[in-house]
Design goal:
It is globular, with a radius of gyration of 15 Å. The protein has a five-stranded parallel sheet, with helices on both faces. The chain has helices spanning 13-23, 31-39, 43-50, 52-67, 83-91, 103-110, 117-121, 124-141, 153-164, and strands at residues 3-6, 28-30, 72-74, 96-100, 144-147. The protein is α/β, with parallel strands linked by helices. Helix 1 packs across helix 9 and helix 2 crosses helix 4 (52-67). 55% of the residues lie in helices and 11% in strands.
Length: 174
């Protein structure tokens, strides 16, 4: 793995992950997509049929395997909020980059996305409360935090590439 992207749903992890992988001429993996492939069902179906606890077990197993692969990994929004996953991420030598966005930006990006279980289950106030609850967990697991609201995906990728090229990049903030 060359980089791990974390952040709340709608922060741009998958979009930026794909572009970053292209720029680095490597593979991109989306943790949620790998879970869906392995489970043979959509995440919403996993949540409905087996519950969040079961999903989180699959997620942890899949995260461990994904970190052993080359490329850029985009995680699910809840991945670093689980203590065992956060420990895996922070112990990894792979840089962890948090993509952050303001409330309005997140709501604009996820408002009509029915593939996200939490968007389906939570009202706006509860969704934003969850975002604010998770923010310190993302920041604690991240080596770099990028506020994405005013940046195009290509600008975010350029920021990440610049940061990755610097020898001393731990505990950086953009």
């Amino acid at each position: 793995m060359e980089a791990i992207l974390i952040g709340f749903m709608g922060s741009g992890k998958t979009t930026v992950g794909r572009l970053l992988a292209d720029q680095l001429t490597t593979q991109h993996a989306d943790l949620d997509d790998i879970i869906v492939e392995r489970a043979g069902q959509a995440i919403t179906a996993i949540f409905e049929q087996h519950g969040e606890g079961y999903f989180r077990q699959l997620e942890q197993q899949t995260l461990r395997g994904a970190l052993a692969q080359p490329g850029v990994l985009s995680t699910g929004g809840g991945t670093p909020t689980i203590p065992a996953n956060a420990a895996i991420l922070t112990a990894s030598p792979v840089p962890v980059i948090c993509l952050a966005a303001d409330d309005t930006t997140i709501l604009d990006r996820v408002a009509h996305d029915t593939s996200r279980p939490l968007v389906n289950d939570l009202d706006t106030a509860a969704l934003l409360a969850l975002k604010h609850q998770r923010a310190p967990l993302y920041e604690a697991a991240a080596d770099l935090v990028i506020q994405t609201d005013q940046l195009a995906p290509t600008e975010i990728v350029a920021t990440i590439q610049d940061w990755l090229s610097q020898p001393a990049r731990r505990s950086a903030q953009a």
